[in-house]
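hi! just following up on the protien thing from before. the input was this:
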Amino acid sequence: MEFQNTSVISETQSNEEQLDHDIKTIREQIKTLTHRRTILTSALLTSEMTQVFIDRANATPSSTTTTCISALKARVRAQTLESNQNLYRMCAGATMFECKDPDPHAVDEGRIIGIRIEAFSSATRTFNPPYYVLLNRPSSTSQSLHIHRHTVPPCIPLPALAAKYLPPPPPVAAIASGKGAKPQNLIRLVRELRREIVGYHKRQDAVKRLREELVGESEMRNRVKDVSVVNAEAEDLRIDCANGAIGRVRIEKNGTVEKAIVIGDDGKRKGGMERMIHGAGRIEDVAQIIKNR
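and the predicted 3d structure came back as:
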């Protein structure tokens, strides 16, 4: 009787694993097909043949085709606008614009220089909400810029970058003693800031994929309990295994594995596993290392 119960449990677990695998496969297929449909729709609406079809329909208008052509034109205009916007956001990762502070008491007559920074998510295949940095001058006679407002998350070292590339002007006493002001470099600030933001989102996407591969798959649930980010910068990763082992992975800003520490359930470090994880190179390859163990 005990042997039968064990067999039933084993068969049930096997069926559950197969069902989970089938569900995951179907979800991946739906995601792939949805993405392909989006690409084909965009290509069809912006193709020359579609425009030729519209021109021919306009040449011989009728009550039936007029409504259809009007709806098609609206779709084409919307798709063209979206395609141009995506192309612009992809090619121009950082843009500058001018705006005005509505505060009547704002300095420099409310003149604001705005920076918009884009970041693309490879996990969702969409653009993340843009980040904005607004700068102004202390007065109309000053040439130095300082950060007025921004939407950059605290985990991005914007204050340190601003102190390095947008240093404030020296006090009057320092100028009188012959110490000149350090030059500001807005272009370098934007470049370094965008590198930090893009790296941050890439690390988040990599950790999300790692969690899906190790925790989401049924055959790995009995081996890996959780994959979590330890700090807000998404540079420290914790992997909790079902056997009590704990792994800590340090990720560099560009996504490469900087250091790995694995402690077994006996409290001792597992040097071989640490070297394998570190040798993976990038965080995206860590999942395959753990699966092969």
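The chain has a mean pLDDT of 82.
Strands lie at 94-100, 111-117, 120-121, 126-127, 131-136, 146-150, 224-229, 236-241, 246-251, 257-263.
cheers
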